[in-house]
Records
---
Amino acid sequence: MITGVENPSYLALHPSGATVYAVAEQDAGAVTAVALAPDGTYEVLGTHPTGGSGPTHLSVHPSGHWLLSANYSSGSVAVHPIAADGSLGERTDLVTHSSPPPGPGQNGPHAHQIVTAPNGGHVLAVDLGTDTVYTYRLDESAGTLTEVSRAALAPGSGPRHLTFHPGGRFAYLACELDNTTVVCAYDPDSGTLTPGLGQSTGSGTGYPAQLVVTGDGSYAYLANRGPNSLTRYAVEDDGAALRLLDTAPVGGDWPRQLALSPDSSLLFAANQRSSTVTAFRVGSDGSLTPAGDPLPAPVAVCVLPLT
């Protein structure tokens, strides 16, 4: 058990596997670096402010030199440098999503996620409050973000999390407020994201949380918090289409986040309200079979498989 990290709501692993980063979802948002030793011991390397409030997501740039974080409550994204030992430096950029105006029922921008495209060329930020995905170019020498394009989603859709297909030319959005998934075409050269039409999650009012895609790009899974279910999709046309196969109980309450093991043989769900993590074996046909009893984990909001 790692202690000394306040209200961690999302975790990310450095490409070296030696450092894990946690975001503190609180009014004064912060990110913390923790060094992991092979013997299971750890060292907290330090904490730095994100410059915003209520951060809900962070990710490590593939270069391993930059940490990216999304401040939900204040609607901004931040960049921190990563030193050779995995520790963090002072923030190098903070970008607030000041336009377009908030969507229906929203009081402002709400940056929910920030990720790097598979080829490393662009950084994408998903904003639930403005119904927009922003594409940035990261200056890898200065650690600053420059917007290059933005993709508008349906008003009131509430895009929450984006997941890329391994091929890098398509991505999938979980939209929290209109209960849809959206297949998006992606141009790796320009960073342009082109959303398609929203499609069913198979769960009615499900408050979809996150999609994950198997390493071979054949299947995708969606966590639905309302009905506490998992939706299984077949990925078709080299990533251009999702075909809904079925839904299954997640075995817990309010699955906020999903994660696949590195070889995609196991799927994990963090169930926030039941304080459990449920695990499933992933079959060759994408089927899910419960793998043992739920694991106790107080207010589970994120699972990060290390091996």
---
Amino acid sequence: MTTPYFNNLIGAKALHLLPANDVLIIDARHSLTDFDFGKNAYLEAHIPNAHFLNMETDLSGEKTGSNGRHPVPDLEVLANTLRALGLRDDMQVIAYDDASGTMAARVWWLLRELGFEHVAVLDGGIGAWTQAGFALSAEPSSTKVTTAVGTFTRKPSLNRTVTADEIVAQLPIAAFTLVDARAPERYRGEIEPLDPVAGHIPTALNQFMMNNIDEHGYFKPADILRAQWLELLEDTPMDTVVHYCGSGVTACHNLLSMHVAGLDVSTTGAGIYTGSWSEWCADACRPMTKKS
């Protein structure tokens, strides 16, 4: 692709200008309470040439009952899925949803897990596309994996990931700065609509991922996001920051916002605990709290 690449966010007008042959668009719409919602929404109308990937199957791995609600998928299977959709190393990947990037950020993170850097989230999602006056399509793009038609080459991960065992080991010395992306009432353990246990990991701070979004559903400007993060983290080294959420999806949104803010988020910087609360609370031996 000869035009500049986008590595975190892209606007609707910029997406519209990208050469069709050089961009792979992923529709990541999903509901945590209605697993058919995303596919049905895609079939009704989507951004032209977009391909639908299912959060529960394409973007998550097999659930064992102890590895969380959205475990990381088999990365080679995901790579082959993307190749079947035509992904090349020189392409731009764009992910969108209808939820201010909460689901699309997972695609962003997974592509980076495959070593693919040129991936961005459509700021404002499908709503931004229609508000800009661009048409939708009801014509589906095939997502059936047959032969690997793309030439995408998997590379080393661009992310930093942390396991439950690593967190357990560091808790006595507070070596990690844990950041919980869930709503404050879930963090405090007042409600828990999705997991069997309420509360959070001890020592964790709370930064609700919707704090990244303005009143119109777009990411806040980079300087505001940066100020928010620095107020929360103060002088905390970025390489100690570990994001988590309920199942490893919206934690990616917080990490993305740090990228937008221009903070240090290299492979040795802020990371993700991919199993998140749904994995953590599956083991009663792990410490849990409702105290802020």
